[in-house]
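Quick board copy: two proteins, each given as sequence then tokens.
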Amino acid sequence: MKPQNLIIGLVIIQLVLIFSSFSILLVMSLQEEDFADYVNTAGKNRFYTAIILHELDEFSNGIISESDVDSLYNEFYENILLLKNGGTIHEHELDPLSDIFYDDLILVENKFVEFHDIAELLKESKKTGEILPEIFYIEHQRVEVELLDASETLTVHITEEFEKTKHLQETLEIVLPILNGIVYVTMMYVIFRTLKKEGKQLQKLEKLYTIGQMASRLAHDLRNPITVIKASLDFLQMKYPEDKIIQERFVRMNCSVLDMNHIIEDVLEFAKAKELNLAKHSILKILSESVSSLNVPDGVVIELPKGDVEMNCDERKLQAIFVNLVVNSFDAMDNKGKITIKIDDESDFISIHISDSGSGIPEDIISKIFEPLFTSKNTGTGLGLGISKNIVEQHGGKLSVKNNPTTFTIKLPKK
């Protein structure tokens, strides 16, 4: 993944985490308020049970009226309905109690109905003067205890859930800031690494630009003296045609001058990329002409592709790439081995593969071979592969390499 995409991803994760953290903690804070109201409301059920028992005794003794007892029953039942259906409490809207407490709440409601029915019998006997049997009071006491137990169980279960929620909230209040911190530190680290890498790349480009400008000037300045030396050598060769020893030296000197010209051409090509001269050409024809222009060692076999593809390209520049790659293969194989060239005609691209039977490129330098001025040879400028890569990229393509066997792949788009 590209550093830029990774940074964008981390920023999005950071924003999502921040938003989620605030949302989760806000929701849990509201839940905490609700649970506090649930616990208080459920706790009132036990209170109402106890006070109604007291009020029934007061009613039996004629101290309070029947309406006072009914009023308490109504408050008790309203309290149960508040838990069951939700409503307003302390100017705050309370949602219905969660389904996980449904069985406990229904049990409280059922016991309340039983308790209310027994109380109604007690009030009726008070009016008629009927004496209730002992079994009535035993049943009354049983329902009373069961209502108290059911109310207590509901309150305990709500309290336990409240404690769990509170504990989870406290944990999240610790964990979420840590997660946000980890993402933030990671993002800062990636940004720092990216800026550092981009800074080094910029320094390298500035350095290469300066070197390129200086090299371009030197190349131009050297061309005139080399032209004079070449003309002088040609003249001397014609002047001493019979002297074999001198002629051999002239040949060596001419080769050296030719090498110097090649170096100058490489420097100029690297320093200033020229516009492409695009036209429709046969790739097989360019490959054949490239190989024909070379002095192929006796120990090297070159296998050209069977098929052919035509495409818009700069013939001369592609020929320069093929020559450079094939000559590099000669050196990699010590002038003994086989070079295989293949063409793959894909839907949107044309791929040209140049493989050799050499020992391969050392893994510690394979990632550097396209860098300008990098070379593993004793001679050369280290610009050949860099120039080749630039030409391929000018065509909108990509130049890559892999080992086992050593294969350079030129991938060019069909245009």
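And the next:
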Amino acid sequence: MHAEQPGSPPDPFAPSGAPRPPGPRVHGRDVRRRRLRPLRVAVTLVTVTAVVTAGIVVALNRLDSAPPVAERCAAELDGQSWFLSPVQADNAALIAITPLRRGFPARAGTIGIATALQESKMVNIDYGDRDSVGLFQQRPSQGWGTVEEIMDPVYSTNLFYDVLDTIDGYEDMEVTVAAQAVQRSGFPDAYAQHETRSRAWASALSGHSAAALTCELAPVATQDAADGTSGEPPSGEQEAGDPLEPFQTRLERDLLDLPAEPDGVGQLVVDARALGPGEDDERYAWAFAQWAVAAADATDVVRVEVAGQVWTREDAAWTEGAEPAPGTGHVRVTVAVAESGEDEPA
């Protein structure tokens, strides 16, 4: 054993006091950490369990009442579907039905839709390059009207066609050339990329392509629909009133005085023969029917019947109708109707 020599400095590493038992030295801090470790594990387990439980509850609720994963509308042309969101489809309905109502060729609708897709993605936005606003990004400083006027989609759409109508030979121009003649954009060729999609939608909404436009939509937030189907329960009490009001308001906005008669609770039969010139009754009926489908998300429409075909929110497709069809050139539209609120017997 090493002995400390007299007069030598003390060894700083030498133990003091009684010898310790063999094994690693345990500090007080380590003891506290070991005591807290089970508590931390317990807290972690409780947290993970709570998160997992919440996730399961949310998933089950979604299975019970969620709308479709993706609400969308489509127009088919030459075997290919061209999709738009419900908001875009609603605006496309106005943009395509307006030239038909005014007696313009179907080509005008293609130009209008392509222009709106490029300028605003066919959404009525209140911002844009410099002072541009609205579906067609028209500028108050360039004489298109006030911001309030341009933000009215009916005003801005009709104004677009007013200017288009002054372009000689626009019917025979390439879509991007005709659009540029109206818009005078800094990107004159950009409209061309939307031509095929726009043609598909304009063809359906002008009635040239029958049964070509469909929408996949969530159920309307009411408990009962006029056609007997059940929708999702409402999140709150629905205001009393005419369930047809949203649809009739849109009908008057887009198509003014098109004749329409009630046909039962939540049902309206529309005479589409007055939609355009001539006697192309079946085409006009399909134009109106597909306009109603494209606008269905905003108007609570759940069923559209025309020429022996039926579209419903449940099927999201045109199928053979089992009920007697409305007359030639007529379209029957059904909207969702809230239940009366009377308690059912136990």
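Board note added afterward: Strands lie at 72-77, 80-84, 213-216, 224-225, 260-262, 267-271, 301-306, 309-312, 318-320, 330-337.
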